[in-house]
Amino acid sequence: MLLIHLNTTDERPIYTQIADQVKFAIASGILTPGVLVPSVRELSKQLVVNPNTVARAYRELQSQRLLEPVRGTGLQISESAPDLCRTDRREYVRRRLRLAIEEARRSELDPQEIEQILREEWSNGNGRAE
Amino acid sequence: MLLIHLNTTDERPIYTQIADQVKFAIASGILTPGVLVPSVRELSKQLVVNPNTVARAYRELQSQRLLEPVRGTGLQISESAPDLCRTDRREYVRRRLRLAIEEARRSELDPQEIEQILREEWSNGNGRAE
Amino acid sequence: MLLIHLNTTDERPIYTQIADQVKFAIASGILTPGVLVPSVRELSKQLVVNPNTVARAYRELQSQRLLEPVRGTGLQISESAPDLCRTDRREYVRRRLRLAIEEARRSELDPQEIEQILREEWSNGNGRAE
Amino acid sequence: MLLIHLNTTDERPIYTQIADQVKFAIASGILTPGVLVPSVRELSKQLVVNPNTVARAYRELQSQRLLEPVRGTGLQISESAPDLCRTDRREYVRRRLRLAIEEARRSELDPQEIEQILREEWSNGNGRAE
DNA sequence: GTGGTCTAGACCACC
DNA sequence: GTGGTCTAGACCACG
């Protein structure tokens, strides 16, 4: 069962949030090759979201060869998806962290203070659920 | 002299880029209370941007009590601006880092790997001139 | 249904009149949390003003956390809006009255005479339908 | 000696503030017919204000027949000024108070609460020197 | 000269 | 359909 959590206050578009979480589910083995993702209508109902939004997320995933259509049945995880997602994921995480760190440096805040913040924020979340 | 650089590839709106750079200039002491910011028309000419866009940036800064109008003369840095900007900046940096870290966690990548990436990215930039 | 009336003789800008009337509507319970305000285009058509003017009014309300965007859908009254508007309204009324009274004092008119005027003007309006 | 206090945070234009205070000074007998008001240059220096601003205030006062030019000498208080100002002043004060009260009513705040605020604000200032 | 308001209209992302 | 961004240009009040 695929669990997706949307954050409407997040500035990122909803379709991106959906696509990213599908990718994470693939990378972590929750979704494996051959498994069908929920139908657009079903997922849109579950997430209380416009069907177009889910369709767009799936479209993105198809264009990245992570989902492939099975005629008359739905969309399934592709054979190559796990590999693609695992490397993607690492690069993605690295890139986001790098951007945040670069911006922190550009703010001309004292580097020691930045390091302090980094330490705090990293340890903050460790050990808690969600 | 206030130097503002617009990044057209940056996804953030122009007025935000302007406002943020004014804030950084205040936080780092380049702009001090009582100093007039460049006039809307002047800055818009310098940045090759519509005057309305600059005006909007300045309006945001006014609503945050960082700029105050001197009638018929222009907009000046408020007395309280430096304090506000310094704490703002810290909060801003912290928030960006926290969001990136939270997303990294959500990716279900191995925490040790995340920490490794964090270390690498942080030390990467240190020691180099930007 | 939200009814907004613009007063062209009022010296206050149109966007302020719009924003204030939305606030009053929230304070008096005509608009409740979760309700969508009329779309920018619709209200601008109804009021025969430029869409940008309505958008600006809504932007002010957003920056005061009274409206929040529902992406692709519109702007809704925030959960905290009623409380904010009710206290705001009281402060607003108080401020206007204080300013008028202060100016009356500064006029060096006999205080007894001012009090007399205050009484008259206050009782004048009571009991009549506006 | 004419004492004028400008409030730069007041939303009213400076030239209006100057003109009004001259009127109050006439109404209260500080300035009497035949007395010369300070020259534009002198008053502008004293108030740290653009000479144009003082000139405009004086222009308004002349157009209301409160000041009259004495060739080669300056502007003097007119014979009829005190009467004009005294009635003006009462009407002015009354009008400002009425407008504030009307707006308070329009806010649909509970009338009892408005009366409460009125009482508080009125008694607040009594007894203190400003 | 300054900022503020408003109009008109284009283009974009999102749902 | 929705709001958001940006441009272009007119007009106003203030100093």
Structure notes:
The structure is a homotetramer of 130-residue chains. Chain A is mainly alpha-helical and 130 residues long. The first copy, chain A, has a single domain, classed as Winged helix-like DNA-binding domain superfamily/Winged helix DNA-binding domain (Arc Repressor Mutant, subunit A), CATH 1.10.10.10. Helix content of chain A is 58%, strand content 6%. Chain A has a two-stranded antiparallel sheet. In chain A, helix 1 packs across helix 4. Chain A starts with 13 loop residues before the first helix and ends in a 5-residue tail after the last helix. Chains in contact: A-B, A-C, B-D, C-D. Chains A and B meet through helix 4 and helix 5 of A and helix 4 and helix 5 of B. Chain B binds a DNA duplex (15 and 15 nucleotides) through residues 13-15, 39-41, 49-53, 55-56, 58-59, 69-75.
Give the topology, please.
4 copies of one chain form a homotetramer.
Chain A: H1 14-27, H2 40-47, H3 51-63, E1 67-70, E2 74-77, H4 81-106, H5 111-125
Antiparallel strand pairs in A: 1-2
Chain B binds a DNA duplex (15 and 15 nucleotides) through helix 3.
